[in-house]
Design brief:
The complex is a heterodimer of chains A (about 375) and B (about 260). Chain A is elongated and about 110 Å long. In chain A, strands 1-2-3-4 form a 4-stranded mixed sheet, with helices on one face. Chain A has 2 domains: about 15-110, Transcription Regulator spoIIAA (2-Layer Sandwich), CATH 3.30.750.24; about 140-385, no CATH class. Chain A is of the alpha/beta class. Chain A is about 70% helix and about 10% strand. In chain A, helix 2 links the parallel strand 3 (about 60-70) and strand 4. With about 260 residues, chain B is of the alpha/beta class. Chain B has a domain at about 95-160. Classes of the chains: A alpha/beta (about 375), B alpha/beta (about 260).
Chain lengths: ~375, ~260
């Protein structure tokens, strides 16, 4: 009668359950055969339906004289019948079951469910969902404001020379956010320069105005694409990394440990990362501008019959310091936005592995949205001011 | 020795509307080894978070000596925090720093020791927890038990007045757990450090605890505060007796 006793033929193993009324009061449930998870057994709903048909009765006696193998299939099945009996106030006699099964059933019901512990799986109505979304949006905004406030505080203590962080950390962050990103920035900005030149050149060549490719590539890259492309690259590269680093530190209570040491995590962790990005992104932006212009030069000189001297002469006429400054200013703003989104998501990260992934995703999505919105606003303002 | 070090007054802890524990009142005396105990999910770790400034109480006060922790200014709060050390359940070592750098961090931040002096202190603290020679290992390169001991070395770096332990023996083998208990008793005896331990390890509770508070998840409040041995001998509360005897006590059980 023990689990794993004599093994029957493994094909078509099955267990059976029979209901039989023995007198006006009582019902016998007979369990026979194999009750393993591989066995074929009729669904418990059918048995419950049969029980409902056979009512009224006051007592159920379980018998298992011919029961062969069993595993957790049997207690699970019986618990459903037990619950049914409890709901209908029917007595149930378990003494005919093997001791092991009785023990497991007792154990499963030893600690009753605490009222209110179960989470209801029912669907929330649409209105409630909208409400929740609005509330979480408000909470998000509040968190953002708090984070910005804390960052400003940390920045102030930095300016007063009181901020505590290790200069090693700052150098590591700079290394990571600056030189470490050169390769990808080179590739992307060179290719964007090429593409800009090609797209423009085809149109301009129709008027025989290939020389103006220099204007298009120069202004497009310096004012817009250089800053934008580096910002997008860095939000995916560094912003996500910040969120994941800080998020993991949160999961591992490292941020709690800093707080209880009396060290502000905003100063110790967020400041070096912000500073690194704010210092490095404008530099990367200048480098990307240069690469983009180079890309344009390659296309115009090789495919459109303009000499290198002509290209650079035209470029010098088209692009002035204001354009470059606007691009640099943008990249400075983008740096703040990327670092804020990355660090904030990391610091607010929940305490699970999936939360770290969510934080990294949210950091990238947020920073790209911030970047594009800020870019539009700045471009609009420049347009209105006529610069 | 019966000078109160930490006093908890009418403390109610909650996450939003969800109350964890209400109306907690107890005192941790100087030199105590104070045990916060109770079944799982009763809010032991949450209480610890309130004591070490990680979570603000919904109501009530935590008073260090005579200073009300949650009503002090940020600067004062940081001053209080510098007097405490915390050993987190997972060790919470900074994973980007070596063990030596981890322990040296608070020393470098808050003291005027030279590099050489700090290195000596670091070696001494590591030796104290049985990790001599592991200075240049990263936390990910050592076992969980070793991480925990290194976390303890970091918590002790500044010779804090109060040491907090969150489940110190969880994840340790019985011998290491015993060694940790011995270390705790030593710290308390030799340095007079006040020690607050969150645990449900019965052997530890009786071996080290000189005072305790028992939290109950069902009534959502504390049932008693006294030394564990006296609680076992004198308490009439069936839940406490059951807890302290692994449910094998003479009080009738619910099963």
């Amino acid at each position: 009668m023990k689990a794993g006793a004599d093994s029957p033929d493994m094909k078509g193993i099955s267990g059976d359950i029979n209901l039989e009324r023995i007198d006006a009061e009582s019902l016998v449930i007979r369990l026979t055969g194999n009750w393993t998870q591989a066995a074929k057994i009729k669904p418990v709903e059918h048995v419950l339906a049969e029980l409902a048909v056979l009512t009224p009765f006051a007592r159920i006696v379980l018998q298992a004289a011919d029961l062969k193998q069993w595993d957790s299939r049997l207690p699970t099945y019986l618990l459903a019948i037990l619950d049914y009996c409890q709901a209908k106030r029917i007595q149930i006699d378990l003494s005919g079951l093997p001791d092991g099964v009785q023990g497991l059933l007792k154990l499963a019901r030893a600690v009753p469910e605490r009222a209110g512990d179960r989470r209801s799986a029912q669907q929330t109505p649409a209105l409630a969902k909208i409400g929740k979304m609005v509330l979480s949006g408000l909470a998000d905004t509040k968190a953002l404001v708090i984070f910005i406030g804390e960052t400003v505080q940390a920045g102030i203590s930095l300016m007063r020379g009181k901020a505590r962080f290790r200069s090693v950390d700052l150098f590591l962050c700079i290394q990571e956010a600056g030189p470490g990103a050169l390769a990808i920035v080179t590739l992307i900005s060179l290719l964007v320069g090429l593409i800009l030149a090609f797209v423009g050149a085809v149109q301009l060549a129709m008027f025989g105005a290939q020389i103006f490719i220099a204007d298009l590539v120069g202004l497009g890259t310096v004012r817009e694409m250089g800053a934008l492309m580096t910002a997008v690259i860095m939000s995916g590269r560094t912003g996500a990394a910040y969120a994941a680093q800080l998020g993991t530190m949160n999961v591992n209570s490292e941020i709690d440990a800093l707080k209880t040491m009396g060290i502000s995590p905003m100063e110790f962790l967020v400041l070096p990362r912000m500073l690194a990005l704010i210092l490095m992104l404008p530099l990367l932006c200048i480098y990307a501008d240069f690469m983009g212009i180079l890309g344009g030069a390659i296309v115009t000189t090789t495919a459109f019959d303009v000499s290198l001297t002509q290209y650079f002469n035209q470029l010098r006429k088209a692009v002035d310091l204001t354009d470059i400054s606007i691009g640099l200013f943008k990249s400075l703003v983008f740096a703040v936005l990327i670092a804020t989104a990355g660090c904030m998501r990391g610091m607010q990260c929940g305490r699970s592995a999936s939360a770290v992934g969510d934080a990294a995703t949210a950091a990238v999505v947020n920073s790209i949205v911030y970047i594009v919105v800020a870019d539009s606003i700045i471009t609009l303002i420049c347009n209105r001011l006529g610069i | 020795m019966n000078k109160p070090h930490i006093t908890v007054k009418d403390l109610t802890m909650a996450y939003g509307d969800f109350v964890i524990q209400r109306d907690l009142n107890f005192t941790i005396n100087r030199g105590d080894v104070f045990v916060i105990m109770g079944g799982s999910g009763c809010g032991k770790s949450t209480l610890l978070k309130h004591l070490i400034g990680l979570q603000q109480p919904a109501r009530g006060d935590v008073i260090y000596d005579r200073q009300n922790f949650w009503r002090s200014s940020d600067a004062e709060r940081i001053r209080i925090l510098r007097r405490i050390g915390v050993l987190y359940q997972s060790g919470a070592l900074f994973s980007s720093l070596t063990l030596a750098e981890n322990i040296a961090l608070p020393l470098g931040e808050f003291t005027d020791f030279s590099r050489a002096e700090i290195a000596d202190i670091v070696s001494y603290k590591l030796a104290l927890v049985g990790l001599a020679g592991f200075e240049d290992y990263y936390p990910s390169e050592i076992s969980g038990g070793m991480q925990k001991r290194a976390g303890l070395a970091r918590a002790m770096a500044l010779d804090p007045e109060i040491l907090f332990f969150d489940e110190p023996s969880a994840g340790l083998d019985p011998v290491s757990a015993r060694l940790l208990d011995d270390l705790i008793i030593n710290l308390s005896d030799a340095l007079g450090t006040t020690i607050v331990v969150v645990t449900h390890e019965l052997a530890s509770i009786f071996a080290i605890g000189t005072n305790a508070v028992f939290l109950d998840p069902e009534t959502k409040t504390m049932l008693a505060t006294d030394s564990p041995k006296r609680l076992l001998a004198e308490s009439k509360d069936s839940k406490i007796i059951q807890f302290l005897t692994r449910g094998e006590g003479n009080v009738e059980t619910t099963r």
